[in-house]
Amino acid sequence: MGFQCGIVGLPNVGKSTLFNALTKTAAAQAANYPFCTIEPNTGEVAVPDERLYAIRDIAQSKEVIPTRITFVDIAGLVRGASKGEGLGNQFLANIREVDAIAHVLRCFVDDDITHVDGAIDPLADAETVETELMVADMESLERRIAPLRKKASGGDKEAKAVLPIMEAALVLLQDGKPARMLETADAEEAKMLKGLNLLTSKPVLYVCNVDEASAGEGNELSQKVAERAKEEGAIAVVISAAIEAEISQLDKEEQDEFLETIGLEEPGLDRMIRAGYDLLGLITYFTAGPKETRAWTITEGTKAPGAAGVIHTDFERGFIRAQTIAYDDYVSLGGENPAKEAGKARDEGKEYIVKDGDVLLFKFNT
Ligand SMILES: Nc1ncnc2c1ncn2[C@@H]1O[C@H](COP(=O)(O)OP(=O)(O)OP(=O)(O)O)[C@@H](O)[C@H]1O
Ligand SMILES: [Mg+2]
């Protein structure tokens, strides 16, 4: 299923509208009443990447195949959800399954669209949702800590290692801060924190759902969200879900015209998908040939054999080496052969950490 980004927020803020725009479908029911969505909607979305076309033009490939990530449109969360209010715990379980969260905040004013709390206030909304996630995390930690303490005092090594992280996360949460703000000492600790699978340790992207007129520059409400995000070291994107849903139904030419009239260079969705991709800690490498130019997704830090394994497990098992050309070299020199002649096609081995944009050709034994 790949990497999943969950669309989370209060009811009736435009989550399903956004999901439909992302997936260019009307697969999710979007309507003006809270709790319209109950069962999560899941869809794969192509990650827009201009580099694919630059490589294609050089390699003369017949086809371009972008890489994809999955978005999950999750039911709206309300105050008390962690105690089972609204549709409560079931939704929290849906959130637990995703790798990152796109938190949709209503930044449009429209008296015809119901707001569950009766007032438009994206910062208060963010607090409400975040509080529920934090309460759920605190309860989960409290439940787990006591038995773990017993194990640790009995000499269990794993319990001893993870306990301090759990305790630190709990203290942070009790102080009203999400677990993602916990400062871990090293990669090992970061991994343990991730392993706890807390709702608030997942990376968050704020999505400001604005009115049509604010789709380009945002508005006062989205500005406030941007400030909050900055304080947290998080990212906020401005998008008008309603408009994006319309744009996504147009063909490319009509899209460009429409975008120009509303003052956008590219669909807000493209920015959002890329932000989601970055948020997940993902990078892209390419393969290029006469048949296709293709983008592949790996997590940052993946070594060459692991990257090969994304294509086929045989490639990983029989990995010998990877001919590697950096994207900039590939494009500026004009492709594989010129890059080889210029000495820019490196042979990399098993320990090579693949970089974003690498154009790779794997040599392997089967
Ligand atoms: N930017 C926007 N401007 C105006 N109206 C919008 C905007 N985005 C969404 N809407 C409208 O808000 C209503 C709720 O949208 P949607 O069903 O997508 O919300 P939701 O967050 O999925 O709700 P639920 O939690 O109930 O599933 C719909 O009528 C939709 O057309
Ligand atoms: Mg919905």
From TrEMBL:
One of its GO terms (cellular component) is cytoplasm. GO terms for molecular function: ATP binding; ATP hydrolysis activity; GTP binding; metal ion binding; ribosomal large subunit binding. Residues 281-364 form the TGS domain. Keywords: ATP-binding, Magnesium, Metal-binding, Nucleotide-binding. ATP binds at residues 12-17. HAMAP family: YchF_OLA1_ATPase (MF_00944). This is Ribosome-binding ATPase YchF. It comes from Roseibium album.
